[in-house]
Design goal:
Blueprint: H1 4-24, E1 45-52, E2 55-64, E3 70-72, E4 88-91, E5 97-101, E6 110-115, E7 122-127, E8 145-152, E9 157-164, H2 175-179, E10 182-188, E11 199-200, E12 208-216, E13 219-226, E14 240-245, E15 264-271, E16 278-284, E17 289-295, E18 303-304, E19 323-331, H3 333-343
Antiparallel strand pairs: 1-2, 1-19, 2-3, 4-5, 5-6, 6-7, 8-9, 9-10, 10-11, 12-13, 13-14, 15-16, 16-17, 17-18
């Protein structure tokens, strides 16, 4: 018969073994927002229009049925050879899809294509802003990056945003160029005629890039990258943050606390299949990995899911290895099926 001291030792050992055994087979909870029956999903499918690391600025497609697990289309080849830019797609006033891009940051011409099925794209028009006419920003450099397009159903107009710098970088201070980026916009009813001049979107003095707008409920949200370099005195640098406003063009609030780690960019926002949760993806550049932050409303709080490790028992979301930034949109199951039928999908 075991003595009391030995019995306690065995009990302790048994507890340790049980905990160790359980931990080895423990499964952390899946991200919220999913549905058991796909037919019950409010958002039935998703399209990620993006570039890839070895073919920067060109158009590729990846799709998902749950907003978490993504597969490449078209054998990871271009889906539209004429496109050049940082892909951004929105559904417009006429139910068709519009995509915007430009040849490079040195090219001020923003090109616009249109498609009824996301398969065949036709040139729709272009817009070339006169950056020198922006009020209180006549010293802008003649450069333009990552145009983004959003159609606001409430006001029946598009907002076209992009970032523009006002200081050249130097060998001693290359970050000066990026910290000087400011977000500008114009409005349009039809993407044929635009505002008289570009206007600064934010009245606060902070570097911002990769900005896009979404309306949720009665509030507008600007999802942005804080483009100041991170330091002890600017710990939010190179993170994804969110500003809010009561109207499309602001004034916008000071940005929120970061919803991503440092050195993340190109955010993308999608609602979950049950339409109750928000997923924000962002790239750890240059093309290192993707992160995912999750919240039940855009005011937060946010947490970061585990993924992109390529260990299936750890990943809560997955993507092809070589994808770089672009945009994500919801699509119907019928649109998903047609894309898969036309381009073919990764096995």
């Amino acid at each position: 018969m075991l003595k009391s001291r030995d019995r306690k030792a065995w009990q302790t050992l048994l507890i340790v073994l049980i905990i160790s055994f359980s931990s080895a087979f423990a499964q952390q909870p899946d991200p919220p927002g999913q549905v058991k029956n796909p037919a019950e999903a409010v958002n039935q499918a998703y399209l990620f229009a993006h570039m890839i690391h070895k073919d920067y600025g060109r158009l590729y497609y990846t799709v998902s049925l749950d907003g978490l697990h993504w597969k490449s289309l078209n054998n990871q080849q271009r889906v539209f050879n004429d496109y050049k830019g940082h892909p951004d797609i929105c559904k417009g006033h006429d139910g068709r899809y519009y995509i915007v891009g430009n040849q490079s940051d040195a090219s001020l011409q923003i090109n616009i294509w249109v498609s009824s099925d996301l398969i065949t794209w036709e040139k729709f028009g272009s817009y070339t802003p006169d950056l020198k006419t922006t009020p209180d920003y006549g010293y802008a450099l003649q450069r333009l990056g990552a145009p983004k397009l959003y159609y606001d159903e409430s006001t029946k107009q598009y907002i076209l945003t992009w970032h523009t710098p006002h200081k050249e970088g130097s060998k001693e201070d290359p970050e000066r160029y990026w910290a000087s980026q400011r977000t500008l916009y114009v409005l349009s009813k039809d993407l044929k005629t635009f505002s008289d001049h570009p206007t600064r979107l934010f009245d606060w003095d902070m570097g911002t890039i990769d900005v896009f707008i979404r309306k949720v409920g009665n509030q507008y949200f600007a999802i942005l990258k804080d483009e100041t370099y991170p330091t002890l005195y600017w710990p939010t640098g190179k993170t994804i943050r969110i500003a809010r406003a009561a109207s499309l063009t602001g004034p916008y609030s000071e940005p929120s606390a970061p919803i991503s780690p440092n050195f993340r960019e190109a955010p993308m926002l999608i609602p979950s299949p049950d339409n109750k949760i928000w997923y924000v993806y962002y790239e750890q550049y240059p093309g290192v990995s993707y992160g995912l932050s999750i919240a039940d409303n855009l005011n937060g709080p946010w947490y970061q899911a585990s993924g992109y490790t390529f260990f299936s028992d750890w990943d809560k979301y997955s993507m092809p290895k070589s994808v770089r930034h672009g945009c994500m949109i919801t699509i119907s199951r019928d649109e998903y099926n047609k894309l898969v039928e036309h381009f073919g999908i990764e096995k």
